[in-house]
Structures are given as structure tokens and as C-alpha cells.
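User: I'm curious whether this sequence folds into something compact or stays loose and floppy. Could you predict its structure so I can see for myself?
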Amino acid sequence: MSRKLIVGITQGDGNGIGYEVIIKALADERMLELCTPVIYGSSKIFGFYKKQIHDIENINTNVITSAKDVHAKRVNIVNCLPENVFVEPGQPTPESAKSAMTSLSKAVEDIKAGYIDVLVTAPINKRAMSNEGFGYTGHTEYLEQQFGVDEVAMIMVCDRLKVGVLTGHVSLKDVPSMITVDRILRKLRLMKHSLQKDFGIDAPKIAVLGLNPHCGDGGLLGDEEQQVILPAIMAANEEGILAFGPYSSDGFFSLGNYSKFDAVLAMYHDQGLTPFKALAFEDGVNYTAGLPIVRTSPDHGTAYEMAGRGVADPRSMKAAIYAAIDIFNRRADYEDLVANRMTIKMPDTEIKPKGGRVIE
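Assistant: Here's the prediction. I'll summarize afterward.
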């Protein structure tokens, strides 16, 4: 890599643990060797939370009004909030929601302009932002609209596990009607492409989970597996996608079968994120596949109950920054290969598509 990447970091909800995990992550001296961080928020709020963290050594900051003026050897703070901004740790407020929206909007504006290379987002309060007119159910949906893409996928990432979700921030009662052959196929295509382009996996093997307990138990508990999910897997196989299943979620994770695959496609949010966070909460990363830019975030929320106490764990934020840098560089390598018309030989795999079998 010819230069350090410029990593844009949004503050998220300033009354949560966002600033604390950002400060702790950037206090690691290795960070400034790897990248040039740019925080979108307030130097005033940064200073407030820094005082709450007693074991942090001095952090050299550079307060700027534009990411065009970054200092490569300092933690840069783009002051994009009003001077009179204040914080109420542990309390979702209209002001904290508006500030989170402003931070995100400014960071997206700068990455579109090319002033920053990748985007890392701190946690937000979706309800509070919705009350202030945000209009989206989360970062993923906002970024999908901002960059005008037809399909994105929320993929939870750690060294040993990658979990994508078919349906994201939607009510559970709406999930069954959203499970279609076309939607599953589109998500599998996107996941395959992302695993190749963003993670350097030549021929990724993707496990697909069922919807119902015991994968419907032969239709006794539901027929989505037989009528929709299995036909989608078989259609994916016809396209050369190494998709397998459907698998019953409880046995799949409890028996460690996820270790045999490069990624997992869950049917709904909690089906995928609950086992992921149980297995990899400390170093898990939320990655948005399908965007023209690289966006990651920690896999936790605002954690109001511990805000302002100096006890939040920064490991997931660190992992999100590292992942953004790694994915950016892998994309560059992949695009070089494509540009040079190099042929990547797909390795043989010992696992064969299951064909007409539902795996409970």
C-alpha cells in the first residue's frame, strides 16, 4: 500500500459509548501507523469523554472543519456539530439523535468527495433518529439509498465466522412473506461476489439456514424450506454458487457446523446475529456488502447503561477499523486482477451441493 488510508469515523449517538470506544481504539499507538483517523463529531464531546477514561495517555488531536485538512500523524476531528452541543450520557435525546444524523451525513458527503477512503460508523439509536425524521431503519438502509445500489447485505464478520441476513431490520411477522426464491438468489449472488472481492475467497461455500424449527419437519411446522429455500439453493447451484442446506439453525451452530463453510445466510436478523454475537461479540464487525464504498461498524449498540463510566470495551471498534482497511486493500487487489484479465482457478471442494435434501 503506497499510503495510509484515511478512515472516517462517525460519532454515532453522543450519549452512548461511541466516543469512548473510539477514543480507546485510537489510543492504541498502532492505529496511527496503519491509518489516518478522522472523527466526525465534536472536539468538545471528545474532550468530555476523554476525561472519563483514566488510563488513556495523551492523544494528539487535530481539530479541523474539513477532511481535506487532515494531519497524518494525529487523530483528526471534523467539528461538524454546533459549539453549544452538550451530552447527557445514558440518555437518548433529540439533540443526540440530530447530532448522529449530522455526523453521518457529513462523513458520507466526504467519502463521496474522496476525502476519506473508508467509513466506520459508531452505534446509533434508531428509534431516536426516526423520531427526528431520519427516515431509515438503520445505517444499512440509509447507505443503500445514498449510493443508489439495488442490493446490499448486512454481513457480520469475524475471523472464524461470517453471517449474512436475508431480511434485515424488519418485523418478525413480515419475514415469511419476504422469503422468496428471487430474494434468496440475489442475496447469495451478492454474498458470493463480496466473499471473493472483499475477503479474497475464490470459491466460497455458503450455508443457508431454514426458517422454521427443524426446517419445517417435513412440512409439519411449515413448508418454506421445501417450497422456497431449497429451490433457491438448487437454482444457485445451477449458477455455480456453492450454496448448501437448508440447515436447522440450532443444530448448525451448536454442533459447530459453521466452521465447514465460508459464510452463512440466515433468514432473519436475530436468527443470524444471536449466534454470531454469542460466538464473537468482542471482536465482531458489521459489514455492509454491495456498496461502492467500504463501511464497517462495531457489532454492538449504544449501551447507554455504561455510557460515561469509562468501562466500555473497544475491541469491536478496533476490529471494525482493521476490517475496513483490510477490505479496502483486498478490493484494490481484486480490481487489479480483473483489470489485468487474470484468471483465478477455482479450487476443488470436497463438499457437494445437497440437491433435494433438507438438513435438520
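Summary: The chain has a mean pLDDT of 92. The two ends are 46 Å apart (CA to CA).
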